């Protein structure tokens, strides 16, 4: 199962993911069309800036296993797919009580200003690769299986260690 | 991994070379565009500002993030300022080209640039009369010095008017005066664009855009027009001539030299040097049958219009020309030359020769030209190319077959001449409805649009509906390649236009020159309007730039609407991040100058927009539908 994974060290803070997310969740699904739409299309991914480190981090719904937002939702508006584990939101059932926002550890519940209900990542059901990951020019957002992602990080890390051994051995 | 070459271009010669590029593992502009995907949304909407170092700032187009830059500039202000800077760059490019042409002209008149002569004395005298310069009992050179000096003064004028703006119909001049957009001097308006867009100067979108129109007029009726006219005096005013166009004009058994860029000043000399018997003999000694010069982009259009030098292609074909493996020298001057050519040329034997004192690129052989030594430099360049023939690898030569005949050289003078010295026959044809109106189709290539698809389909659609098309720049080359510049293309026109073209022996699409030569279209429009006693905005005419990409095209679009001609753009300019600027360009500006912009990427729909506009203008003049 693929997840949207983050490599924060690569984020340049360009916010292309945010734009792409809003466009994918617009009626026209085109940038030039989306900017003219009412209601204004909303993004579901957020680039947060950590001023202490001068680093931007793209924040996107983790679609948690045993998701707190789903477990507290009083009306069943939030639900989790049994197989894909994607957490989706049904606006028809949402009453805007914001309990989900209260319990989400990542702040991934947004607000639909016109309807005053919750809005969140649906992992782009119409796309093979979610819009945010497809839009990222530096690969800070990737859409991969956790196993493959961790393996690539292990390989990278192992390479660094191997270099250390070679450097030591040549002394 | 065959790329989708069919989706990239409609031109068979281009497709053939794209397949070759793919086979050889060579990247082109189309591949680089793919690698740029997705392109930055803020940039596409024009809401990113880098004008000061408190920034960069950008506005959230969806209203959740910042709605102002650090200085407080809104999306409307940022978009307007960015657009003004594009106009400034475009006007600067045209007008600085003009300055160089006048400086060469002056050096010629002073006897310091022996390679040049006055080729069109009648035009010299006509220009002198326009400036009240006496020609009686004076040599052409004396007149030329006076003319050069007054032309140069147009650049540094502070209070206007720019003399050629007085060629516009009196009603149009009044429009400019009333709106406060009559330009005061070519350089002044461009400098003022940069001043106004500096942090904390002009922050009212309407005010900013009005200055944009003023600057663009200083290009169209100033810089560009000066460039056209001086080049006509120096190199001859074009008259109809037959030639050929597309990569198939390259010769398998001759030395091929491509002249690419925008200025005819050196390329004219290269064309002459390539005919020098000494050079031709050298080529024969190297085993070549001769020397063949071919043009690319607007340098190509300049030598095509005046000498019938064949054109190898338009903007997106510059890399493909090198990929034929048959180019000994790619000689460039200024504008629209891809820096990618350096790396590409190094994969072949091609010498990439840069010549302008103001333009160099990675991987060039530098052969800077100066007016005093233009002839010598041109000869050196040709010699370098000829000697490079020995390095050609015959096994890598792959010239596509495609080429098409074309009739070119329709300067305003030539068109009026063909009509018997007066626009009356054309006006009669328009009044009778045989010709519905005039469409001016110009502009670049842009890989965002299938190469030549926008150009060729829009033009075909217009002539089919009896709209006479005048063309310049990369559109003209696209039309040439598609066979639309052959007199026989009249068969593709509606019955009314076809009859007119066949009686005159001209194509339904008239090639009027390079992109600075859009000034010729303005002169023609002014002649029609003056003859009818109306404003240009009353004429049944419309403009289009189906595949535009350059800042020059932005300046052109602005001066075309400022001149009163409705204009349809085929690619979206970076303005949609501002409702106010978008509304001004598509509606509000109409109240000021009587013409607006529209955006329509589909050439068939764009043609309908233009035809509807022409029908409305016909109604306005009381002409039958």
Estimated share of beta-strand residues of chain A:
15-25%
The overall pLDDT average of chain B reads 97
Poorly predicted regions of chain B: none
CATH class term of the largest domain in chain B = Alpha Beta
Total helices of chain B: the number is: 25
Descriptive report:
The complex is a heterodimer of chains A (171) and B (625). Chain A is α+β, with helices and mostly antiparallel strands. Chain A has six helices and eight strands; from the N terminus they run βααββαββαββαβα. Chain A has two domains: 1-60 and 126-171, Alpha-Beta Plaits (2-Layer Sandwich); 61-120, 2-Layer Sandwich (Alpha-Beta Plaits), CATH 3.30.70.20. Helices cover 30% and strands 19% of the residues of chain A. In chain A, the strands form four sheets. A two-stranded antiparallel ribbon of chain A has the order 1-8. A two-stranded antiparallel sheet of chain A has the order 2-3. In chain A, a hairpin with a 6-residue loop joins strand 4 and strand 5 (87-89). The N and C termini of chain A lie far apart (45 Å). In chain A, 30% of the residues are buried. With 625 residues, chain B is α/β, with parallel strands linked by helices. Chain B has three domains: 96-235, Up-down Bundle (Substrate Binding Domain Of Dnak, Chain:A, Domain 2); 247-396, Rossmann fold, CATH 3.40.50; 405-620, Rossmann fold (3-Layer(aba) Sandwich). Chain B is built from 25 helices and 16 strands. In chain B, the strands form four sheets. In chain B, strands 6-5-4-7-8-9 form a six-stranded parallel sheet. Chain B has a six-stranded parallel sheet with strand order 13-12-11-14-15-16, sandwiched between helices. The interface between A and B is medium-sized, with 20 and 17 residues.
């Amino acid at each position: 199962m693929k997840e949207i994974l983050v490599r924060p060290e690569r984020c340049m803070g360009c916010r292309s993911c945010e734009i792409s997310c809003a466009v994918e969740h617009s009626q026209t699904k085109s940038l030039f069309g989306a900017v003219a739409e009412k209601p204004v299309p909303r993004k579901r991914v957020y680039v947060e800036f950590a001023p202490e480190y001068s680093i931007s981090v793209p924040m996107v719904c983790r679609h948690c296993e045993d998701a707190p937002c789903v477990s507290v939702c009083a009306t069943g508006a939030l639900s989790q797919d049994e197989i894909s584990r994607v957490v989706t939101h049904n606006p028809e059932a949402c009453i805007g009580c914001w309990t989900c926002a209260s319990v989400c550890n990542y702040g991934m519940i947004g607000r639909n200003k016109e309807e005053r209900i919750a809005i969140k990542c649906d992992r782009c059901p119409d796309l093979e690769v979610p819009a945010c990951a497809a839009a990222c020019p530096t690969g800070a957002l990737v859409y991969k299986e956790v196993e493959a992602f961790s393996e690539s990080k292990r390989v990278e890390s192992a390479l660094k260690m191997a270099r250390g051994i070679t450097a030591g051995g040549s002394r | 991994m065959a790329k989708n070459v069919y989706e990239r271009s409609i031109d068979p010669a281009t497709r053939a070379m794209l397949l070759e590029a793919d086979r050889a593992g060579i990247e082109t502009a189309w591949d680089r565009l793919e690698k740029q995907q997705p392109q930055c949304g803020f940039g596409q909407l024009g809401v990113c500002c880098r004008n000061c170092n408190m920034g960069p700032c950008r506005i959230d187009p969806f209203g959740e993030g910042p709605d102002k830059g650090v200085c407080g500039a809104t999306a409307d202000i940022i978009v307007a300022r960015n657009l003004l800077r594009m106009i400034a760059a475009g006007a600067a490019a045209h007008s600085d080209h003009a300055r160089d042409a006048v400086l060469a002209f002056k050096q010629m008149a002073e006897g310091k640039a022996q390679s040049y002569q006055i080729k069109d004395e009648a035009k010299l005298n006509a220009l002198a009369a326009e400036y009240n310069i006496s020609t009686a009992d004076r040599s052409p050179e004396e007149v030329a010095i006076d003319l050069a000096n007054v032309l140069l003064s147009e650049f540094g004028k502070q209070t206007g008017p720019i003399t050629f703006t007085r060629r516009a119909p009196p009603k149009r001049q009044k429009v400019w005066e009333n709106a406060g957009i009559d330009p005061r001097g070519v350089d002044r308006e461009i400098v003022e664009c940069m001043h106004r867009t500096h942090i904390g100067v002009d922050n009212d979108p309407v005010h900013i855009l009005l200055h944009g129109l003023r600057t663009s007029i200083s290009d169209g009726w100033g810089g560009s027009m000066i460039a056209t006219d001086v080049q006509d005096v120096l190199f001859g005013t074009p008259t109809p001539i037959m030639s050929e166009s597309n990569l198939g004009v390259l010769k398998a058994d001759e030395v091929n030299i491509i002249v690419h860029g925008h200025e005819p000043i050196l390329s004219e000399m290269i064309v002459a040097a390539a005919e020098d018997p000494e050079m031709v003999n050298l080529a024969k000694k190297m085993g070549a049958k001769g020397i063949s010069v071919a043009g690319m982009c607007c340098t190509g259009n300049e030598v095509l219009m005046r000498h019938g030098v064949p054109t190898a292609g338009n903007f997106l074909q510059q890399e493909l020309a090198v990929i034929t493996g048959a180019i000994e020298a790619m000689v460039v001057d200024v504008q629209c030359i891809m820096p990618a050519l350096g790396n590409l040329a190094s994969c072949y034997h091609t010498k990439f020769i840069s010549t302008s004192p103001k333009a160099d690129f990675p991987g060039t052989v530098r052969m800077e030209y100066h007016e005093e030594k233009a002839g010598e430099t041109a000869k050196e360049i040709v010699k370098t190319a000829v000697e490079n023939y020995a390095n050609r690898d015959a096994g890598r030569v792959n010239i596509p077959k495609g080429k098409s005949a074309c009739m070119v050289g329709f300067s305003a003078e030539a068109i009026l001449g063909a009509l018997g010295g007066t626009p009356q026959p054309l006006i009669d044809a328009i009044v009778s409805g045989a010709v519905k109106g005039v469409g001016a189709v110009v502009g670049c290539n842009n890989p965002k649009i299938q190469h030549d698809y926008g150009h060729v389909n829009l033009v075909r659609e217009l002539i089919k509906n009896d709209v006479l098309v005048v063309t310049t720049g990369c559109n003209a080359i696209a039309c040439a390649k598609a066979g639309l510049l052959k007199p026989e293309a009249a068969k593709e026109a509606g019955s009314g236009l076809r009859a007119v073209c066949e009686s005159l022996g001209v194509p339904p699409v008239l090639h009027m020159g390079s992109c600075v030569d859009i000034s010729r279209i303005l002169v023609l429009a002014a002649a029609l309007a003056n003859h009818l006693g109306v404003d240009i905005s009353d004429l049944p005419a419309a403009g289009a730039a189906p595949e535009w990409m350059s800042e020059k095209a932005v300046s052109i679009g602005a001066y075309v609407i400022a001149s009163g001609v409705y204009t349809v753009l085929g690619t979206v300019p970076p303005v949609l991040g501002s409702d106010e600027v978008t509304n001004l360009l598509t509606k509000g500006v109409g109240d000021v100058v009587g013409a607006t912009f529209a955006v329509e990427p589909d050439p068939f729909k764009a043609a309908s927009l233009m035809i509807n506009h022409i029908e409305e203008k016909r109604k306005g003049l009381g002409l039958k539908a």
